[in-house]
Design goal:
The structure is a homodimer of 339-residue chains.
Chain A lengths: L4 H8 L3 H9 L6 H14 L5 H8 L4 E6 L5 H16 L3 E6 L5 H9 L8 E4 L18 E4 L9 E5 L1 H13 L6 E6 L7 H15 L9 E3 L5 H14 L5 E4 L2 H13 L9 E3 L16 E3 L2 H17 L10 E4 L2 E3 L8
Parallel strand pairs in A: 1-2, 1-3, 3-4, 4-5, 5-11, 6-7, 6-8, 8-9
Antiparallel strand pairs in A: 10-12
Chain A binds a DNA duplex (30 and 30 nucleotides) through α2 and α4.
DNA sequence: CGCCAAGAATACAACGTTGTACCAAGCCCT
DNA sequence: AGGGCTTGGTACAACGTTGTATTCTTGGCG
């Protein structure tokens, strides 16, 4: 077994509590004993038992991050940012995948035994519906990512999806394009990024006095690359001409790009293209992909800040939930270059 | 506070240990009391305190996964597989990033307090050198991914990098190409995938009676997409003709592809291209990317199996370390299509 | 009818840590 | 010189769980 406070205490000839105080920098300890204890700690290679510490303190130093899928670049990069941000605050991150965001998976995960292991959870919901908000009461701090479940009174980090969607669309319109298609819509949904980004799209069209054409709107359930390709084939099959495309995320955009090129359609000359998320891949596609940068580091930072406020605050319940918004910016690359 | 065994015991009118037995399915409990206890458990929504359980049992149910960077698609997908595999065995995964695999970061991570929190560690080393092997003695089970630190007597999961490198190269040669470039080499290193894959490259050339030309070998430190682009510019600048390219991973390949296309060089007509890792992105690039599939799910499964054997085994020390090899296969896509 | 074994449940300690309460000096002040 | 105060340290309990040893039933059997 590894060394404990007892071992160190015996070795240094002090009480176990004094060692504890030295290790945690608490209480008053004379310089002499402190040094003696530290020497013993070093010599015996003492490392505190985190389970015991957690049992006493009620804190584990672990936070959970629940996302749909790590193999989607957006979430991988988000996880990266969260881990980085957590590390700076002395926390470690337990990642859980909801796998396509199936509702049941999400509910299970909210009630799973892992919750006992984490001081709080950062959760990017996808499949849950409004009736499920009661399940969000998990007994430990929770921060939602995104605009789903708007009814729930929980801390959350969102972005200006409507404005961002409008800005993306506008960046296409300002090139003089007038037939702007969009893929990734969830027309019969009432919630989620898809709804908001679509709203931005519609809004931008209106502001520029351009008619909204349903034939240029393609719905896509999961925003995977393969579905982007499928959506583009569908759009092409419709035979409706278009000269610009707003893809609701970069995966869709890159999937669509591939199909456009297969058909000999040049981007950006024939079709200007913009995605969403600023995933690394877009920088090296050909043409490189214009996109909306959602401010991932900020999202991570804000989420952890909200979480830590709850974790730290003794009386967590009576504080009203907060919503923080991350800044976004349009990144113009080759896929919308003047041409 | 949440409900404890005490609460349930009082509620069901039994002893605390009986509740514990019921919850864990241990000991002999009559059907009647079992039912009564389970009813109380459900009613009070009892969930065991994992810290306390860990303190008693010495197990946390958490395993660590230390990788260079989650934003590299290969590692994101690997992490995905590990989490999935762990979940099936009732474990959760703590992901730690070594950020480009700096040696110090790796050593810190091996000694960090997190080790007290995990039952074992799956570690993909990058910057550590052979002199550091002593640091691998972390007091809990450890499985290495890859061939680094060959001197260390630790469990590990590897792949037939030499054979795979040779197979990739051969798949280019069999197209009739004779000037096969390679990017990603670490010529003055003695260890690592780069060395082995390069060895396979050399070997395949020799077997096909093709001369090895140093001018067609480009070194790349970190196998990022941007470095792939840089390497390709360097290769083009050399002015040495080549008609095929083996990129040591898909990121390099996609970065290189982009630069080739900028220069109007057609893939696969002018240059046939194969990568390594079978990252999702390669399926939707244009042309789609031929690659080597390293068997990620198998790697994840093997790593966890090795880890669990150590964790389970009472006398862990006297069992000789094992090495498992994952199967690989060549995936031919457009970037090496006959043409 | 009395004894024993097996079945069912309990009491208690321990895992390693930290918070609370307490104690022993030494010092200053009146 | 004795009361209060600061400084440095200790003893003990508690966090919630589980392993070990123990007790209490009960029914079967000689």
């Amino acid at each position: 077994m590894s060394t404990t406070l007892h071992d160190v205490a015996r070795h240094a000839g002090v009480s176990i509590k004094t060692v504890s105080n030295v290790v945690n920098g608490l209480g008053r300890v004379s310089a002499a004993t402190r040094e003696r204890v530290l020497a013993s700690v070093a010599q015996l290679d003492y490392r505190p038992n985190l389970s015991a510490r957690s049992l006493r303190s009620g804190r584990t130093g672990v936070i959970g991050l629940a996302i749909p899928e790590l193999s989607l670049a957006y979430f991988a990069q988000l996880a990266d940012a969260v881990i980085e941000e957590a590390e700076q605050r002395g926390l470690v991150v337990l990642i859980e995948q909801t796998r396509g965001g199936a509702r049941n998976r999400e509910l299970e995960l909210l009630r799973g035994p892992q919750r006992q292991l984490t001081d709080g959870l950062i959760f990017s919901p996808f499949g849950m519906i409004e009736e499920d908000t009661e399940f969000l009461d998990i007994g430990s701090p929770l921060v939602l990512l995104g605009e789903r479940l708007p009814g729930a009174s929980v801390d959350r980090v969102t972005m200006r999806n409507v404005e961002a969607g409008a800005a993306a669309t506008a960046s296409l319109l300002k090139l003089g394009r007038e037939r702007v298609a969009v893929i990734g819509a969830h027309l019969d949904a009432r919630l989620g990024s898809a709804v908001l980004r679509y709203e931005g799209y519609v809004q931008a069209l209106r502001e520029h006095g351009i008619e909204l054409r349903d034939e240029l709107v393609v719905e896509v359930d999961l925003w995977h690359r393969s579905n982007g390709a499928k959506a583009m084939r569908e759009l092409l099959a419709r035979g409706e001409p278009f000269d610009a495309l707003f893809a609701m995320n970069d995966e869709l955009a890159l999937g669509a790009l591939r199909v456009l090129q297969e058909d000999g359609i040049d981007v950006p000359t024939d079709v200007a293209l913009i995605g969403f998320d600023n995933v690394d891949d877009g920088r090296f596609s050909r043409p490189s992909l214009s996109t909306v940068d959602p401010g991932r580091p900020e999202i991570a930072r804000m989420a952890i800040e909200l979480l830590l406020e709850r974790i730290g605050g003794a009386t967590t319940d009576d504080v009203a939930p907060r919503e923080l918004q991350s800044p976004f910016r349009i990144i113009e690359r080759e896929s919308t270059s003047g041409a």
